[in-house]
What does this fold into?
Amino acid sequence: NLADSLEARNHWVFKTLA
It folds into this structure.
C-alpha cells in the first residue's frame, strides 16, 4: 500500500528529526 509506505517513511523522518 502506497499510503502505508508513505506513513512509515514519514514516521522515520520524524524519528530522525526528533
